Amino acid sequence: MHVLVTGAAGFIGFSTARRLLDRGDSVIGIDSVNAYYDPSLKRARLAELEKTSDSFSFEQVDFADHEALDAALEGKTFDRIVHLGAQAGVRHSIEHPRDYLTSNLAGHLNLLEVARHRQSEHMVYASSSSVYGGNDSLPFRVEDRVDQPLSLYAATKKADELMSETYAHLYRLPLTGLRFFTVYGPWGRPDMAMWLFAKAIMEDRPIDVFGEGRMRRDFTYIDDIVSGIVACLDNPPADDGEEKAGGSVSPHRLYNIGNNRSEDLGHMIELIEREIGKPAKRNLLPMQPGDVRDSFADISAIQNDLGFAPTTSIDEGIPRFISWYKNYHAL
């Protein structure tokens, strides 16, 4: 299979591209390699992909620029698309809202247009558990209403789902949206809590623990996430008029993709402390704007449809992350 992967220099995009290459697919990766976080980490990921297989090619392009995107893809062939590139980060969206307008709205529309004009067999795209906003009914279900986002980031991801539904209806384009819950693991993002905590503890600096430490997250290990993405990619939704996960009768479905366990933030910190071998100095702070106190995925839809079954608990996954972190930084 020939697959276009956006965000190929990012955490989930890189990990997905590597899995596809490992099983013998050819991958065209695109990414702007912007400076939202250290581009050297992104380039290190790309170097890993280039070592993995000769079937990987890369184009550095901003997919929010439709003319540049079309030029970068001219003459290239691919059957399916995994659209994982986006401007991430709830807190960043509070201070830099225009970044989300271009990448998450214009960029998503551009990929829908690519899929439509290329008559792609299927496009899997990244949504987010942030769309659930302040929903206090746990676990979060794809059937829940998601009309009250707490951040602009969440609002753009909800908009992506709506645009996708329109394209599936108008053009019968097979689409699958994945509402990711907190993803972690080797090659992760340095703006996320697990990386920030590990770095601060190793440097004997205090860690900022928001929500007074009383927060819970459905931490999902990267290998489990990738297994779910690939299972979706391999099984496009049918255009059969039947209702899909998320409620669409067009070839468009929505899945939660998480670990199906909500873990206390304090337990996550304790595991990091144990692996590093020193205690954290905790600076307890109130909730930040846009944050939610709890996240918990009901994954019954993707389990029933595709057999998705995450296997990695944080007791297993966090030691793997810390081991990778130490090796990457030569600690």
Structural write-up:
This protein has 331 residues and is an alpha/beta fold. It has a single domain (2-182, 221-258, 297-311), classed as NAD(P)-binding Rossmann-like Domain (Rossmann fold, 3-Layer(aba) Sandwich). The chain has helices spanning 11-22, 39-52, 66-73, 90-95, 97-117, 152-171, 193-202, 222-233, 265-276, 300-306, 314-328; strands at residues 2-6, 26-31, 56-60, 80-83, 122-128, 175-180, 183-184, 207-209, 216-217, 220-221, 252-257, 263-264, 282-284. It has a 7-stranded parallel β-sheet, sandwiched between helices. It has a two-stranded parallel sheet with strand order 7-10. It is globular, with a radius of gyration of 19 Å. The model has no long low-confidence stretch (mean pLDDT 91).
User: Helix coverage percent of residues?
Assistant: 40-55%
Q: Please identify the top-level CATH class.
A: Alpha Beta
Strand order across the largest sheet: 3-2-1-4-5-6-11
Question: Helix count, per DSSP?
Answer: 11
| Count of separate structural domains | 1
Radius of gyration: 19 Å
Helix/sheet category:
alpha/beta
Spell out the CATH superfamily.
Answer: NAD(P)-binding Rossmann-like Domain
Labels describing this entry:
Rossmann fold, alpha/beta, single chain, two-stranded parallel ribbon, globular, about 40% helix, 11 helices, about 325 residues
